[in-house]
Amino acid sequence: MLRTGLTLMAVAALAALGGCGRSVPKDAVAGAEQLFAAVVARDRVAFEAAVDRRAVREDLRGQLVAVARRQGLEVDGGPSEFALDRMIGPDAFRLVDAEGQRVSEPPSAQQIAGMMKVEAKGRVCVQDQAEHCLLSFARQQGEEGARWRLVSMPAQDLTIALPASDKETPGETARRAQGQAREG
Hints:
Blueprint: E1 9-11, H1 26-41, H2 44-49, H3 53-70, H4 81-87, E2 94-96, H5 109-115, E3 116-120, E4 123-127, E5 133-142, E6 145-152, E7 159-161, H6 170-183
């Protein structure tokens, strides 16, 4: 059975927001903030409210099928719904501080905004240090109005390293992390 705990290193960027010069909408930051708060609290109900499970499941299925094909495997239908659902939950994420320790408080809206960029109209993402999108959120219309929900996440280990402060730039975070790695 495939088991992931999601481990790509995402180092927060608090520089100018990307995405063709467009700022990340405040309600998109609030959607990511809801997800991260649920992850830190291990609150499954709040987590589900922040996730479009069907979209994330399909995204993960595509990633896993692509990995299998690269290995010369072909599985009709790809991974089961059960296997995919086990990959989607607060325990799959690991939010850490600048020293690599699991955080006990969710990141601030300013920290989250600095980690995000606009991908397209109605779609934003949380980036890693290399500015690759790790988590994607889409604006969705529902019974309660429009809101931003997680629609894509990596099918491999995911650790999101938060900046030491709201004012730390991506370069400063990377230099500090490299310096600590050399010391340790």
